[in-house]
Design a protein that fits this description.
Length: 325
């Protein structure tokens, strides 16, 4: 039930993507570009946007060192949402750096303090691969968790970040907008896109997938007037308008595939295979130049998770029969 294969990339590289911002490649499952954490640096402070999972903490640490900084200086951590590929490592970091604080949507905050429900629902999805994928999920003391309001601004490493509530992928997803430089750190609301392809793939896992909300959030990103999107899955892209234009039509295509498959009585694996074939088609010519690109998209947004996400959504809407499990 899992399409993607591990690669051989160790991660831990740091690329200065603009002045005093580094994209740290976490080398998730041995692949480059699949999960990034963004390091913001000022002489007296380091901040991080996204931590990646606990399983890639050695790469995160190596990346901070490669950028020329001391991991122990890290004091502010911003996470887009609480899915383990984005914030699973935050607890282990705070255990090591007890002064560090973690900024998150208020609905996500309780799950950082007590990740037991998050971990058990992930374990249902990932089974015995749980530990290899995500590592140890460490609770964060409540007083270290800083819930954000929509529109709230926070100073970090000499910058001002504004929290934009952007539901759709998850109800508690936050994007971080930096007006001064015209950049948005999108988390998953900006989709998955690997360099070399124009395909902006919205990852659609259960349980909170909400395409209508996502469309509003996409519009919200557009209205910032951003010149650059920093995707957690894939890196920096400057064709902001075109990228955002493609996102919702691409989600609608996957929805239509799932609706067709599920109305025809196909199971999740069959629907996932259809999504996978569609994804490979949409990646297009980049596949010939770079066979690994299919694996990268697959690790960032497993087709089976989108099948499960749409199964739940379509059943809730009454469009397909409810699964009896
Ligand atoms: Zn993600």
């Amino acid at each position: 039930m899992w399409e993607a294969e591990p690669g051989a990339f160790a991660g831990g590289t740091a690329t200065e993507v603009e002045e005093r911002v580094w994209a740290i490649d976490l080398g998730f499952q041995g692949w480059d570009q699949v999960i990034y954490a963004y390091l913001l640096a000022a002489p007296d402070e380091l901040a991080l946007i996204e931590t990646g999972p606990a399983s890639t903490l050695p790469a995160l640490r190596a990346g901070v060192a490669a950028a020329g900084f001391d991991f122990g200086q890290l004091s502010k951590i911003f996470v887009s949402h609480i899915h383990l590929d984005h914030s699973g490592g935050a607890g282990a970091i705070v255990r090591e750096l007890p002064e560090a604080e973690v900024y998150v949507h208020p609905a996500g905050a309780p799950h950082l303090a007590d990740p037991s429900r998050l971990v058990s629902s992930a374990a249902r999805l990932y089974g015995e691969r749980m530990d290899a994928l995500w590592g140890e999920v460490v609770p964060i003391p409540e007083e270290r968790v800083r819930p954000l309001n929509d529109g709230e601004t926070v100073e970090a490493a000499g910058r001002v970040l504004s929290a934009l509530f952007t539901p759709g992928h998850a109800s508690h997803q936050v994007a971080y907008w930096e007006p001064e430089r015209g950049a948005v750190f999108t988390g998953d609301v900006g989709g998955v896109r690997m360099p070399g392809s124009a395909y902006a793939l919205p990852p659609a896992p259960p349980p909170e997938l909400a395409p209508d909300d996502w469309a509003v959030s996409t519009e919200r990103l557009r209205q910032t007037g951003a010149r650059r999107l920093y995707l957690t899955h894939g890196g920096a892209f400057d064709d902001v308008g075109e990228h955002l234009d493609r996102l919702m039509p691409n989600l609608a295509e996957v929805e239509a595939i799932c609706r067709g498959a599920m109305l025809a009585g196909e199971d999740d694996e069959a629907a996932a295979a259809r999504i996978q074939a569609h994804t490979e088609g949409r990646i297009g010519a980049a596949r010939a130049d770079d066979p690994g690109i299919v694996q990268r998209y697959g690790w960032a947004s497993p087709s089976v998770l989108s099948a499960l996400g749409f199964r739940r959504l379509l059943a809730r809407r009454g469009e397909i029969p409810r699964a009896d499990r």
